Amino acid sequence: MSAESSTITVRLVRSFEHRNFRPVVYHGVNLDQTVKQFITFVRKDVSSRTGLPPPFKNYKYDTMKIIHQAHKSKTGELVVSLEDDDKLILKEDSTLKAAGIANETELAFFCEEDYRNYKTNPVSAW
């Protein structure tokens, strides 16, 4: 598999408090596309994907953050790490490769407003 065509896992985060998320795996992702293009692609795919419950299909996802990269350490957080936002939240105008995405990277896709609210009060509901 070339470095430009990679497998990326996107964790759709519906609720931080309830730890409600679903992973979706994408094969053959071009790392030379911009983050904005990839977000548009994932939004369109999620809205029409069979097997996902309607709350995941219709959610207002707007932000991606790196959760884990292959051969590197994992965080202890169950949904997404609350640290290093400046390095790990993807900027829409950069390419996936420039943002640090490589083969087998895992990303979180969530609503930034929900993330900010959870970050100020990181309490789980269960």
Can you describe what's shown?
With 126 residues, the protein is an alpha+beta fold. It contains four helices and four strands. It has helices spanning 35-48, 54-57, 85-88, 112-120, and strands spanning 5-15, 20-30, 63-68, 105-110. Strands 2-1-4-3 form a four-stranded mixed sheet. The longest helix is centred in the first third of the chain and has 14 residues, at 35-48. The radius of gyration is 14 Å and the shape is globular. The mean pLDDT is 86.
Q: Mind describing the biggest β-sheet?
A: 4 strands, mixed
Number of strands: 4
Unreliable stretches? none
Beta-strand fraction estimate: 25-35%
Shape: globular
SSE run:
EEHHEHEH
Helical amount: 10-25%
Average pLDDT over all residues: 86
Count of helix runs? 4
Radius of gyration: 14 Å
As laid out across the biggest beta sheet, the strand order is 2-1-4-3
- Name the structural class: alpha+beta
Distance between the termini: 41 Å
Question: Quick recap of the structure?
Answer:
This protein is α+β, with helices and mostly antiparallel strands and 126 residues long. It contains 4 helices and 4 strands; from the N terminus they run E-E-H-H-E-H-E-H. The chain has a 4-stranded mixed sheet.
List the main descriptive attributes of the protein structure presented here.
126 residues, alpha+beta, 4-stranded mixed β-sheet, 27% strand, globular
